[in-house]
Amino acid sequence: MIKEVLKDAEERMKSALAVLEDDLRGMRTGRASTGLVEKLEVEYYGTPTPLYQLATLSVPEPQMIMIRPFDKSSLKTIERAILASDLGLTPNNDGTVIRLNIPPLTQERRLELQKLVGRRVEEARVAVRNVRRSAIDDLREFEKEKLISEDESKRGQEEVQKLTDRYIQLIEEAGKRKEAEIMEL
User: Fold this and answer.
1) pTM for the structure as a whole
2) Angle, vertex CA 73, rays to CA 67 and CA 79, nearest 5
3) How far apart are CA 134 and CA 156, in angstroms?
4) What pLDDT is stored for residue 165 in this prediction?
5) How many Cβ atoms sit within 10 Å of the Cβ of residue 171?
6) Domains, the chain
7) How far apart are CA 120 and CA 71, in angstroms?
8) CA–CA gap between residue 58 and residue 32 (Å, rounded)
9) What are the C-alpha distances in Å from 113 to residues 29, 110, 124, 169?
10) Which residue positions in the chain have pLDDT lower than 70?
11) What are the DSSP calls for 82-140, one per residue?
């Protein structure tokens, strides 16, 4: 029973970390990254489709993303989706591929992004703490219903705390990595 609570808590903490990493991957840094555009929704035959399903994405140069659509007829719709997005990038379409030149970040924008990373990290920490609280509540409930002993409950709570500490640490490291990447010139 305790193992199930711990397993469930770890799964939920893992997903909080995954959501954070996914969020951070989509944030623009001074360097080009396909993570910036891969989740971009493109209207393809009336269906919003993530860009990575419609094209090969690559980074041929540190300041450029290249998008090579599988279907040449989708070039214009991909271009429109990029222009309509909040990326602030202008696509260069040569008829076969779209090139996105990533301009260097201004110091002001770097600081804004750093604050945004801080907020995302805090949201992930809160999510992990909520999972911890929920798991501990479950263990206390089991103890109250006499399904587990007080000692087992205490041990389970300690395990939940260890899990929480580990995931908070991983979240902090992900945030620090991203902040360093943003501040890199």
Assistant:
1) 0.70
2) 45
3) 13
4) 95
5) 23
6) 2-25+106-183 (1.10.132.20), 34-101 (3.30.1360.40)
7) 36
8) 9
9) 8, 5, 16, 21
10) 28-30, 185
11) HHHSTT---EEE-SS-EEEE-PPPPHHHHHHHHHHHHHHHHHHHHHHHHHHHHHHHHHH
Distance between CA 116 and CA 38 in Å, rounded?
20
Rounded CA separation 135/156 (Å): 9
- Determine the Cα–Cα distance for residues 56 and 8; give it in Å rounded to an integer: 36
CB contact at 8 A, 124 and 172:
no
| Phi and psi at residue 130, to the nearest 5° | -65, -40
What are the structure tokens assigned to 24, written together?
């951070």
CA dist., res. 96 & res. 68, Å (int): 7
